[in-house]
Structures are given as C-alpha cells and as structure tokens.
Amino acid sequence: MYSFTPRGVCSQQINFSINDGIVKDVVFYGGCPGNLKGISQLIQGMQVEEAISKLRGITCGGKPTSCPDQLAMALEAGMKKEAV
User: Fold this and answer.
1) What is the pLDDT at residue 82?
2) What residues does the TSCPD domain cover (predicted)?
3) How close are the terminal C-alpha atoms of the chain, in Å?
C-alpha cells in the first residue's frame, strides 16, 4: 500500500496499491467525494501506465493540477518504488 500527499488540490491524501502493474484499492481523503470515488472505480484493475496516461495533465479550474493529475503523479512514484 502506498500513501501520497497531493499538492495544490482539495484532497489531502491518496492511498493505493499496485499489484503486477495493476492499480488497486485507490482511496482519496478529502476533496470531492463522488468524483473521486468515481475516478477510483474507473481505474481499478487498469494497467498503471494506462491510468497515468489518461489522468496526467488534467487541470481543475484555474489550477495547474487536479486530483486526477495528482493521482497520476502518485502512481508514477509508486512505480518507481516497485522498480527498486
């Protein structure tokens, strides 16, 4: 299980697992609950690389990032730890 502290968004923490390159058990703390639960369900079981490519670069309002973009960063960090 990985824990990531997002920056520049409403959510305060993202927890997730990566099993054999597959995204599992994504949970956001804080933020917009319905939207974030939806995102979590949509990427459940997805290849990490595919999830990153779909989420990376999404912005929120005038912010340069978003909760999905922060999740992409979290997944990238998790993949780096998996490779060690």
Assistant:
1) 77
2) 4-77
3) 15
